[in-house]
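Hey, weird one. I pasted the AEDO dioxygenase sequence into the form twice and got a warning about non-standard characters only the second time. First submission, copied straight from the form history:
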Amino acid sequence: MPRDNMASLIQRVARQACVTFHSPAGPAFGENLHRLQQLLNEVRAEDLHLAPRGPSAAAAGGGIPWGGVVPPVSYMHICETESFSMGVFLLRSGACIPLHDHPGMNGMLKVLYGTLRIACMDTLPPAAASPPPAAAGGPCHRALYRSRQHYTPASPPCLLSPHTDNLHQIDAVDGPAAFLDILAPPYDPQHGRDCHYYRLLEGPPAGAEPSGLPREVWLMETPQAADFWCGGEPYPGPRVCL
């Protein structure tokens, strides 16, 4: 059964996000961000009326957008303001949200169920060095591959800032997974906050553990992968009023 305070908890998370991201350059930002991180760390799947799904479970509601093909990832919208957006991403077993960026944005990710493997990178300033020969398909960028870790519901939130861990790839490991996501401010192409996708040009084979992190790498900007798209589902949890 869900806890008695679940509605007030997700409401408090949203209100604290409003306070935190209203003035991200203000003197109290660090303290407010820490308070938001503490609240987010308390959230569990049952607080949002979510239950882990079986490995082959199809998305519900609006999660089947094209020809009966189930999307690898679905999104449940909770709320959005000019300062931040909040929602839940649900990944089917084996699904991957490809490497992408969050231009000028802060973010927090809290796993609700399942296990995620998250690779985090920073962009680096351009340099005189040339990209590897494989970089003929699109613009290339230097980056710092900082970490690749597993996150579960017992883990603290994964954080990103405009300059640190701003690029990440998210993989569902050993079954489906879901996470609560806060981005501040929201994506907005008209204000220079469009999502860009990348491919790692050098590094270990897919699924292998990288060595020697952190280390510099080259990334090539790519179109959104044909096998990745995000469907929509209704949010079943407590209503958030802002």
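That's the output from the first submission. The warning seems to come from a hidden character in my clipboard, not from the data itself. Confidence is low (pLDDT under 50) at residues 1-6, 57-66.
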